[in-house]
Amino acid sequence: MPDTTNLSNISATIKDINGERHIWDSLRRRWLVCTPEEEVRQYVIGWLVSKKGVPQLRISQEYPVNINGQHQRADIVVVDDFAKPHILVECKAPDVKITEEVLMQAMRYNAVVKARFLILTNGKQIFCYEYREGNYRAVSDFSI
């Protein structure tokens, strides 16, 4: 079930550094090269903090995930009060469609991470799934 919310009402600080666009990462407190996917990730972080009330200290970027001996990284993981993963977010560039393949990628990561919620977004659409009783089901929102 898609949430047609987009992230256009979230602000980010972008500037030119040596002829290249950079975006401010408020969590790591540094400028990052502003790739399309990174821009979506920073807007998602802003959305989680400002619209969903997630404390910044609970958000981890490029969360390590080891799948069959291969080192992968989940874009964003939000942990609960006990530092247990609660939300896994997979970000894609705006021109990348959120497909079954993207969902499967997030589900593979979550087989290791074990978060209750998955969020898939390309910045234009946000899809949310809840893992309960061994199954994923589309939901319209998540709880913190």
Q: In a few lines, what is going on in this structure?
A:
The chain has 144 residues and is of the alpha+beta class.
CATH architecture: Alpha-Beta Complex
Please give the alpha-carbon distance between the first and last residues: 20 Å
Radius of gyration: 15 Å
CATH topology title? tt1808, chain A
Number of domains: 1
Provide mean pLDDT, rounded: 90
Oligomeric category: single chain
Low-confidence stretches: none
* Tally of DSSP β-strands: 10
In words, what does this structure look like?
With 144 residues, the chain is α+β, with helices and mostly antiparallel strands. It has one domain (2-139): tt1808, chain A (Alpha-Beta Complex), CATH 3.90.1570. It is 20% helix and 41% strand. The chain has helices at residues 36-50, 100-113; strands at 2-3, 14-17, 20-25, 30-33, 59-67, 70-79, 85-91, 117-121, 126-132, 135-139. The strands form two sheets. Strands 1, 5, 6, 7, 8, 9 and 10 form a seven-stranded mixed beta sheet that branches. A three-stranded antiparallel beta sheet has the order 2-3-4, covered by helices on one side. Strand 3 and strand 4 form a beta hairpin. The longest helix has 15 residues, at 36-50.
